[in-house]
Structures are given as C-alpha cells and as structure tokens.
Design a protein that fits this description.
single chain, mainly beta, Phosphorylase Kinase, domain 1, Transferase(Phosphotransferase), domain 1, Neuraminidase, 4 domains, four-stranded antiparallel sheet, 61 strands, about 40% strand
Length: about 850
C-alpha cells in the first residue's frame, strides 16, 4: 500500500517517495529516536503473490544478519496495514548499472570497486549467505565512492555461521535443486542447470560484473534468454584485451578465473579474490602498457630498467594470479555391496591390495576386508572381538592395530592374514596411529602420547581441551595431526611437531566454528585429505602441502566431493591415485513394532526421525529429524507435520509437557559450550531460552523442569562431570539438586520423587523432595531411557549375555520390575553420529499402547574408491 508524506511507522516518519520498481516502493523517512534519515522499502499486494513476500522476507533476514561497510545495513522488518516494510540505511549516489551505462570504467576504478564488492561478499559468505542475484543493479556506489551490495532477496543460507540469530535460520528452506533463480547474463553454469549452488556462484557473477566494468558490455549477452544461458554453459566471453588492450594481464586473468565453468576452477573464496585484486593494485601496474614509464625515462638505461621492472612484475603477478592447479575426482567406484552398516568412528587402512575397515554387528564393530578392486567383503579371521574398531596398519603391513574392550580401551595387534592377537603394552587409548618407523602415537582423553613399537615407554606429549582422535603422522615423520572434539561440539584439526612443540589449529579461520575431522596424508606427502561437515553431509577436502617454482600450492583447502553421498574416513592408496572411503546416504524410517503381526510398520508417516515422543493424550508426536537434528511435530499418522526449529540450532532430548501444549528440549549452536533448555509451543513460534540444560523431565504439574548439566569445575572427560538441577518456569529460578553429582537423565514420576541414573553403573537413584535425600531405587543396566506417555514405564535397550544383539527392556515404576519386551536381533538401526562422528548412539521409544518405536536404517553405506587426478 502506498505511503504518504507524514505517515508514521513506529519511530519513522515518511518524508518522500524515492522510487518504485523491482520488489517494492522505496521511501525516505526520518528516524525520530536516533535523529537520522533512513530508507523504507514497502512491498504491497502480497495476497496475490506470496512468492514475492517470501523473497522480501528472505532479503530482510539475510541482510540483517550482516554487518559490513560494503553491505546495505538493515535496521528493522515490520508491517503496516498488512504490507511488510524494511528499514535500512539511506544511500545517496547511484547504482553501478547507471555508471556503466555512461561509459566503461577505468582500470583503477574497476579494481577499487571490485575489491570492495569482494570484501562484502566475503563477509556474507562467512555467515553462510550466498546472494545468487549479484548484478550491477544490486550494487550501489555512494557519493564518497563506497560500494554497497543490495537486495538479498534471492539469498540462500548455505551454512549458518552466526549462532546468535534466530532470524537467519529461516533461510535454510532455500530453493529446491532444479529451480533456476537469478538474472540471465550473470547466472553461473550451475544456476542455469538448476544444480545446487554455493558461494562460488557469486564469484562467477562477480566475474561477469568485472568484465562488464572493463569492457563496457556484458560477458554473456545473446538475442534471447535461452541463447544467453547456452552461452554461459558452452562459450567463453571475448578476451578483454580485444576491447580494452590497456587492462593489465593480471587483472584479465582474475576476471577469466572468476568465469571458469567449473566451480572448483574459480577462486575458492571471496577473500582470496579481494586479495588478488589488491595485489594487482599494489603492483602499480594498472595502466597495462608501461607507457608512462617510457615517457618519464630520462636515459636509455632508465628505460631498460623500468621496462624490466614492469615485465618482471607482470610476470610475477601473472604467475601468482593464474589458477592454481587443483585435484579433481575423476571416477567413483563402489567396492562393497553388502548393505551392512559401516563403523565411521574407527578408520580405514589399506596395504595396496586389500582395504580394511569395520562393519557393525549387533552394535559391535567387526574387522572386515575387501579387495582394492572390489568384491565380496569378508571378516578378518580372528576370534578376537575388538568392540572398539581399527586404529591403523603397521608400517610393514603385517598386522592391524585395533582397540580392545571399553573406552578408553587397550590396544592390540591383529596379525594378517590371520593369527593370535597380542596386547601392546598396558596403555589405554581413544585412538592411535603409527610413525613411519613403527613407534605409536595415541590419544587418551585430552592428552596426546608417544610410545615405543611394543606399546611401552608411553609418555605424554601435550594436553589439550577436548577429546582427541584420528592421529596421523606425516610421511617424513616430522609432524602429527589429529582431531579434537571440543566440549562445544566443534571438531577441528590440530598439528604438533614430532618433537612435541608448536601445537596449533591447522585451519584456523577457514571455517568458524570448525567442523572438520579425520585427516590423512597421501603417501608422497603432497596432500592432506580430510572430511568437513556441511548441512548434515560430509564432503572430502584436500590441503596441498608442498609447492615449487612450477607448481604453486593452494593456500586454502580444495573441495574434492560435493555429494550426493556423504564421504568419510578418507584413506589414500599406496600410489596416492585413489581414496578409499565410506560412502553413506543417511536416512532412517521411524517404525512401530506391531505385536499382532510381529512386523515393523511405519509410524508418523515413516519420517526419517529419532527421539520420538508421544504426548500423554496420544494426539501429537514430536521428534528430531535424522540426521539434521531439527525439531518437528505431527499427528501419529504423519499428518499436520510442522517444523519447529531450524539450523543452526541443533536439538536433543525433546520432552512434551503434561498438558501436551509445550515442548522442552536441549538446544545448542556450534561453538557454544553447553546445551541450553528451550521451550516452544506445540503450535510453533520462537523457542524461549530458559537456562543451560541436558536431558530433562517435566514435573507432574508442568510448572518445573528437572535437567542435567555440567557441574561447576568439572570437565567432560571426568566420569562424574554432570549433576541435576530444577528450574521453576514461573520465576526462572534454578536450584541444584543436593548430592546429584554423577547423576543424569532425570524422570519425575510423581510430585515428591525424582529418578535419575548413575553414570557408569546403571543404578537408578530416587530423590525425595521432602527429605532432600537420595536412595537406591533399583539397578537396571540401562544407558539411555525413554518414559512411556503415561509415565508408568521407562524403556531402554541393551545387549544381554543370553542373546546376540540388543533387547528392549522396560522398568515398571510401581513395583520396580524389569522385563524384556522386544528382541531387536536382525534389525538394522540408525546410529546417530551426533555432530562430528564421535558420539554414536541408538534410541528406542514407546507409543501409548506400549508398542516399541525404533528408527530403522534405510540408507546405504558402502566402501568406495575415488580416483583422483592430482596436479
């Protein structure tokens, strides 16, 4: 709806109409509170075009998440008479399109504008926001020469960075693959094809804009849109030197590298692009011809020296600016086809002819092998059950190094092709690896150790914050890299010298918060390959280790895979030409065991879900999506499904209030140290953050919640680092439950009694609120439990001595009787790799009629060989 002079929108008084078109009308207004002029964009007639409203809201939330001098500052999003409006800073100047219409830009101005745009894009990409519609119309040049990026209306949040903003998360809905969005002429090839896009699609559009600023005409412009799209896919634009011979060669290379058809051949980050443009500017070679040097030379000797300097500078810049050669995966071959679940918490090793890995059997890992060219997977002949998994392969290929029982566990050598295992010293480890000379590197909790070949003489090298895993030694034996899983659920790669000095994070500043894991060097030491988690999928990346005068190393990791499978545990082959990996398509199916038919049948529409809980009245089901960990609700038949939370919030432990109107859950954003307790209405809305929390339970009257959280001064590696608390939801007052150190998973069966499980031994303890004392309730052996909707039972699964595989048990609260209700033998269940692949767990639930709920694994997981062409 049009606004008129004098109209007030909160503290803003409309002064005049600045313009109309695009996605709305723009007005000049006065902010009476802060005494400044602002711009207000209003979008009317929304009932006829909900897509425009959706894009408008996307623009607001995307831009509001950013704070950078080269991005339009957004202050507020509101509505007036049903029409949404967006308040932003007021800009005075003109769009880049208006400047280009008058004439092409000088080299100096192109570099200046380009560096500003690149810095703004880098800020957006760091927040995980891709513009997807970058063009001269969306770039504004203020009167003082500052460039501002406008209109994030097509922005797509690809990887949330800012863990403090609920608004950003709404952008994760994104656009489905196959939908073409953008402006023809500036669209990347992947946009034209309707493929998944990332930040490199903005770099392509940026290259088209740079080209247009220099050449005065578009890089891709044909009579029709279809022909233009075809040109983007199949043709290269005319060389800039043909229309602007004075453009420096280094700058031309920057432009053409941005316009590479394959995303992996472009600049891999906008910050690198900004650096490249600044390097061209700093070189002083922006006239491109060297004519000024010729004219200003006073002697022939000066002329020769000056020309030599120019030529050397151009050559050096051209060498530096040319695209660094990058590795490319040329072929993917599937080696196994058994459909069995693979263990992704151990590792993969190969002796050149065989690939060794672990498969899961009834919750325990089994050492397996398959030919490096593919075939039938067979167990490694042994009677030894590792219960921990493969850690490494001896340098002479004579034995596998495997974990024993427990965590941390003993370390054993398992001879190949067969033989009796032997213990390596008496060390206890979380994970281990070998030096080239056979010495052992291992991690135990928050400490890195070295030991002799036989496991003796284990000595501490360094302590660190978190839990370590996947140690890998460089081929020359001089460096050790390993993964640290922090208490804040981040996962990062670290390096230390073999002499125990110089511990540092390997990729500091690459992605924050970090989410990388499980790296190994190629045999020649030229590349370090690791996995990185993004949007619930692991992809492989490679960091180049060496460079020479003829092969310049890339400064940042290069992506090797981009789906569709999730690839983990990269193991370079002996000749470094292949990577052996676990390839997974992760999906679960929520099922209910029907006692009448003795079959598992889909529940809640067969959603890919874990941690499902049914409301006491049986009308609603809440669950966590697998593997994303977002909170959803639906009817038991799967109808009226609604997503309640969005990334970057990761959800655990949903619990429905006694009246069925609210849901409490533990929520965490990466880089936060601990879970927080949130409450959200069953009908949706913004979650309310209450306090820090873990597993939780409502009081019978719904007025309080008991929860588990870290005890002050305790570390995650300590056995008893948790304790229990109660929060009064009316006052938000948090009280510590006395003497609850080492107790977790509270359950509130009646007003004056609270149950909790003692960590490590399965004892169930009861707390009497009247006497403020604990007493032993029973001993179950349960690890994780789920209450029945009526609160009369606690359900859990565990492995028993009398049967292979787990069973579901329930504890009857009234008489403390424990009984087996379902044998899970033969059921393939999802194992939830929570956040970084280190914590693996399963889950069981229950419906109002007592039927058991489980999540059946319907994904695929096999061993693959990826053929890589290394530069």
């Amino acid at each position: 709806m049009p606004l008129f002079s004098g109209t007030r929108l909160g503290p803003y008084e409309v002064l005049s109409l600045l313009g109309a078109g695009g996605m709305g009308e723009v007005y000049r207004a006065r902010d009476s509170q802060l005494a400044r002029d602002v711009a207000i964009k209003v979008l009317a007639n929304l009932t006829a075009d909900p897509e425009r409203l959706h894009r408008f809201e996307q623009e607001a939330r995307a831009a509001a998440a950013l704070n950078h001098p080269n991005i339009l500052a957004v202050y507020q999003l509101g509505t007036h008479d049903g029409a949404p409006y967006l308040v932003s800073e007021l800009l005075e100047g003109e769009t880049l399109r208006e400047q280009i219409k008058r004439s092409r830009l000088s080299v100096r101005r192109t570099i200046d504008y380009g560096a500003q745009i690149a810095r703004g894009l880098a800020a957006a990409h760091e927040k995980g926001i891709v513009h997807r519609d970058l063009k001269p119309e969306n770039l504004f040049v203020s009167r003082d020469g500052r460039v501002k990026i406008l209109d994030f209306g097509l922005a797509k949040l690809t990887q949330p960075r800012d863990s403090s903003d609920f608004g950003v998360s709404t952008l994760t809905e994104g656009t489905e693959t196959g939908t073409v969005l953008g402006t023809v002429g500036y669209m990347s090839p992947e946009q034209v094809r309707g493929d998944r896009v990332d930040h490199r699609t903005d770099i392509f559009a940026f290259g088209a804009i740079l080209y247009e600023m220099l050449a005065g005409n578009r890089a891709f412009q044909k009579p029709t849109s279809a022909e233009t799209m075809a040109a983007i896919l199949n043709e290269d634009p005319a060389a800039i030197s043909e229309v602007m011979p004075s453009a420096p060669l280094a700058l031309q290379r920057v432009v053409h590298r941005c316009l590479e058809k394959k995303p992996e051949a472009r600049f891999q980050s906008a910050s690198d692009l900004a650096f490249a443009l600044e390097a061209v500017s700093d070189s002083g070679v922006i006239s491109g011809t060297g004519g000024a040097l010729l004219q200003n030379s006073r002697t022939r000797k000066g002329w020769i020296v000056g020309l030599g300097i120019v030529l050397v500078a151009i050559a050096l810049i051209a060498w530096w600016m040319r695209p660094a050669s990058i590795p490319v995966v040329e072929e993917v071959r599937q080696l196994t086809n058994d459909g069995n679940l693979k263990a992704t918490f151990s590792t993969i090793v190969s002796d050149g002819s065989r690939v060794y890995f672990d498969e899961m059997d009834s919750g325990n890992p089994v050492s397996m092998q398959v030919s490096a060219i593919g075939g039938q997977a067979t167990p490694v002949p042994t009677t030894f059950r590792t219960n921990g998994g493969t850690a490494g392969l001896t340098p002479d290929d004579s034995a596998l190094m495997v974990f024993g029982n427990g965590f941390p566990s003993g370390l054993w050598l398992l001879p190949l092709p067969a033989g009796e295992p032997r213990r390596l010293g008496d060390i206890s480890v979380n994970d281990a690896g070998f030096f080239p000379d056979g010495r052992i590197v291992f991690v135990g909790g928050p400490t890195l150790y070295f030991a002799d070949r036989d496991g003796t003489n284990g000595h501490k090298i360094v302590d660190f914050a978190g839990t370590g895993g996947w140690p890998s030694v460089s081929p020359d034996g001089k460096r050790v890299r390993f993964t640290i899983q922090g208490d804040d659920l981040t996962s990062s790669l670290w390096e230390i010298a073999a002499n125990g000095t110089g511990l540092h994070r390997l990729l500091k500043g690459w992605h924050d918060p970090p989410n990388e894991c499980c790296g190994k060097w190629t045999r020649d030491g030229k590349y370090f390959v690791f996995q990185y988690l993004n949007e619930g999928r692991w992809d492989l990346w490679a960091l180049q280790e060496q460079s020479d005068w003829f092969h310049r190393a890339t400064q940042l990791p290069v992506r090797l895979t981009n789906g569709p499978l999730s690839y983990t545990l990269p193991c370079p082959s002996r000749d470094s030409e292949q990577l052996f990996v676990v390839g997974s398509k992760r999906r679960g199916e929520l099922v209910r065991y029907d006692t009448k038919t003795q079959q598992y049948v889909p529940y809640a529409g067969g959603a890919s879900a874990i941690n499902a809980q049914v409301s006491p009245d049986g009308k609603w089901v809440v669950y966590l999506s697998y593997p994303e960990h977002t909170l959803w609700r639906s009817r038991p038949d799967g109808t009226e499904r609604m997503q309640l939370t969005y990334p970057p919030l990761v959800v655990l432990y949903p619990s429905i209030s006694p009246d069925g109107s609210k849901i409490a859950f533990g929520g965490l954003r990466r880089a936060e140290r601990n879970l927080s307790l949130y409450i959200i209405n069953m009908e949706g809305g913004v979650p309310e953050k209450i306090t820090g929390a873990g597993g939780m339970a409502w009081s019978p009257d719904g007025k309080s919640i008991a929860f588990t959280a870290p005890a002050p001064g305790k570390h995650q590696a300590e056995k008893d680092f948790l304790q229990d608390y109660v929060v009064d939801l009316r006052t938000k007052k948090v009280s510590t439950i006395p003497d609850s150190i080492g107790l977790s998973q509270p359950f509130w069966p009646q007003a004056n009694t609270l149950l909790a499980i003692k960590m490590g031994d399965g004892k169930v303890m009861a707390f009497d609120f009247r006497t403020q004392k604990w007493s032993e309730f029973t001993h179950t052996g349960f690890g994780l439990w789920t209450p029945s909707p009526d609160g009369k039972f606690l359900y859990s699964d565990r492995v028993t001595n009398d049967a292979k595989g787990p069973k579901v048990f329930r504890l009857r609260i009234v008489n403390r009787k424990i009984e087996a209700v379902l044998d899970l033998k033969g059921l393939r269940r999802v194992e939830d790799e929570q956040f970084s692949g280190v914590n693996v767990s399963t889950w069981v639930g229950v419906t109002p009629d007592g039927s058991v709920l489980v999540t059946r694994d319907v994904g695929t997981q096999e061993i693959y060989a990826l053929s890589v062409k290394w530069p």
